[in-house]
Specification:
single chain; 4 domains; 19 helices
Amino acid sequence: MGMFLNSKSPIINYRKMTENPYFVDKSDFIYELIRNSYANQYICITRPRRFGKTVMANMLATFFNKDTDSSDVFDSLKISQYDEYSKYLNKHEVIYIDFSEVPDGCSTYREYITRIATGLKSDLIQRYSELELDNNKAVWDVLSEILDKTNGQQFIFIMDEWDAVFHMSFITDKDKDEYLLFLKSLLKSKAYVELAYMTGILPIAKYSSGSELNMFAEFQMTTMELFSEYFGFTDDEVDSLYNRYLNLQKNPKITREGLREWYDGYRIISGKHLYNPRSVVFAFQYNQLSDYWTSSGPYDEIFYYIKNNIGDVRDDFALMVTGERIETRIQQYAAVSMELNTRSEIYSAMVVYGLLTYEDGAVFIPNKELMRKFEEVLLKKESFGYIHNLAKESMKMLNATLAGDTETMTEILEYAHDTEVPILSYNYETELAAIINLVYLSARDKYRIEREDKAGRGFVDFIFYPKKKNGDCIILELKIDKTPDEAIEQIKEKKYALKFKGKLGEEREYTGRVIAVGIGYSKETKEHQCKVKELIC
């Protein structure tokens, strides 16, 4: 085994993954890949980070690698049920390249690519020493020579993070062109390529504006259904993992609904939901719902472009952090360069990077984990102007509500209304609801806030579930051209507070106060009125 040819590294990594108590068997992906490679042996999967691309690449290398016996791993997995299992298991020469790996002290593209080219050529010459291969030839010529001298020896190429080079600080535009030419020379129309499987974050089509990599079939999250369910956890898989978690944890603290709130929300073209697998597994292992998203590189740059295009996106941004969806057209290749100059380009890039999700012509923040990243930017970046200031006021709004300080509550709502916010004209209750979401932004640290939730004899506008059992519960009802007293009466009459009492005969889930909040707004006078009343339950 060598550095690239039949490498041990992916095998060690995948074996370790299968030993994780929260391992999910996605091995039937191997069958789907084999079956579809008959039509085209060049396949590229693009997904955001933390969606299992490397795990799947390691799985493929472990399955195909002829220098190992991995039957002990796969005999108990789904792939073993297919007729193709014994035909393909450990029968192939595998070239595995992780393009994110950089030589120590590397400062030029030439140093970077030389490590790959010379390392692979060295592996091949050592492996096929009896063929007396020419070390002075290019690596693709060496591979062709092996094909000719061995009566047709082919190779499976597994290439992870193919686009990593484009984010390296020392790479120039000329280097990018040379890199594309390297991949073309290595792979395109080569008889020695049995399968070329490539993964990355960004789509290849825009990089390869000519014909360099047009042999690849690209499978993106938002446009291609095939293979989608293998990258990310489905609802059924999370259900199964959750039952496993309940059996393994002595003191489980995570609820199934909590997992959905924190990590669900990504969409694939079929309409299915996907969870971020890394975050779900970490939550189970650490027995805590938290933010396991790691931000680096392109993610930070995306927020940079939001800031510098504030005129185009700031109102959309305000709505998205309140949970609303924004209609837009997605351009799959907008994220290729960081020259994002339009609203559509910015949101397209954010979908590609996994910061937003896309469904039915609209983008939105998929879950609480990502919402916290947006809130963090909103609360810390003064460049967001009135949105930043309004979000800061949200810290005062919750305290005023719990204290029954309706004067402060009214002042904050008046401030929100007096800012120049074209989207919040207050002509409809939905617009007023959006601003309520924003002025209670900080409350999400202490509450799970649901909108239009079923409670009592109807649906309440907003209901605040405290994260602590003894926390105060809040029921909030909005009224346009009606008084806050009418809103409070509706809360009472429809018995919304029953939501906090729990089932008959069971101990109450929440022991704190239940506070009714009525907010009225007059379209004629442009004034708000607030009322807070503690309910007896």
